[in-house]
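request received
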Amino acid sequence: MEILQLIVSGLANGCIYGLIALGFALIYKAAEQVNFAQGDLMMFGAFVALGLTNDSHLGLPFWVACIGAVTAMAVLGWLLERSVLRRVFGQSQIAVVILTIAFGFLLRIAAGLIWGHDPLTLESPIAGVNQHFGGLVLGLDELTVIAVTLVLTAILFGFFSRTKLGIAMQASSQNQLAAYYMGIPVKRIHGLTWALAGAIAAVAGILFASKGSIDPNTGLLGIKAFAAAVIGGFGSLPGALAGGLIVGLIEPFAARYVASGYSQIAPYAMLILVLLIRPHGLFAQIHAKKV
Amino acid sequence: MSLLDVDGVTVHFGGVTALERVSFTVEPGEIFAIVGPNGAGKSTLFNLISRFHEPEEGDVRFAGESLLRRAPSGIAGLGIARTFQNIELFEHSSVLQNLLVGRHTRRRASILAQILFTPAVRREEIAHRVAVERMIDFLDLQPHRDRIIAGLPYGIRKVVEVARALAIGPRMLLLDEPASGLSAEESRDMQFRIKDIRARMGVTVLMVEHDMGLVSAVSDRVLALADGRVLAIGTPSEVQSHPKVIEAYLGTEAAAP
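response:
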């Protein structure tokens, strides 16, 4: 029973990592860029939702806050691509890495200025409600996180493998020049990708904030999610989710059965292990081959 | 009406004149070749039609419509497809996937319908697959259908690029040095394919090529460029015997020792 309990809470945490990792994988898959601000986008999305719905702030209904936060973060992602990243279009990937790290700092500072540096809790209808299944106590928040993540991953997977826009995104990541001359507006596609990544970050943020408190440094979680994305094979969506789940599951078990402190390094130990055995990640695209 | 009308275009790169008031027309159903020594402006001309460069003067019209108002991504939708001298394929995708991306401008279904994979989308996908399979049959790519590009030999990639361009369903095909890097045998195959493309698909072909054997074998008309200026336009034999062309390729007699 205890193990089951650990598994569920690990899965729920893992889904959050998975959602942030999805953001990493998405941008890498579509634009071949690495966005180190993904964790901070999540944090900021959570704060936007909190600012809209908490009674101490605007006090709007929860679902309005969700739509508002997702829309706002999509617009923010789009604006970031449009105003900053498009200027380094075609330059080395390091330029994007440095710009997004800086953007992450800015988001942390902005969130601190607007909402303060103390931990806050999102007033969410799914927070703190428990479901009892026999001797098992499951939080509604944990179940929602798992359900939303699975649905979102399935939709994104369908989007990338089936839709014209999704395939256009993959094409422009593999060869921008060729994509242009197949009639794909590459720059507009990049903008849409960042908007989508912003929207996913907001969903991850709302779910995370429903499970606990947030503060401006919550975004540093993005580093663990980055490890998750690498474990899954950067650029693979199911891989990102799987990587997130692996990282999420390792933590509670390490905390429970290994000396304290090791749970913090467990995800990175796993990352190094995966890189040693399968350097391209567990779900690497390079190995993928249809027979 | 001419299919392509290049009207007095001028392009400079810094102090270098890449094209100086170049004008010519390509008629529907024609195989038209552009020849010239290195740096003559052949590739610049192609990149101009692809909207990669902006001309300082002049206009480029396709079927009567100015291309200069279009973005680079808008060219394929007009019915102009191209290949590249150094091959630009989606390296980590299969031959089939590359060709299917060529159908991009022809996909119509809404994004929601595509995610749900409705019967209408299914029919559309089947139609695209049929169109792509026709190209695979046409260019004998069957054995390579599911191979990843990164593992294919150069000569095959060259053909895949032509197939992908044709998958767009173009009215005009731009071939940038279709025979460069090919063996004598592959080059001969390419020669038949270019003729076939016009004969069986009715596609107008505009190509840049160094191999004069190939050019004389397939072209209806040839444009010779040197230093960004038009030297001669005419049939392959007319252009090859034109004194200015001989001068550009071999130097003047006075300059010879």
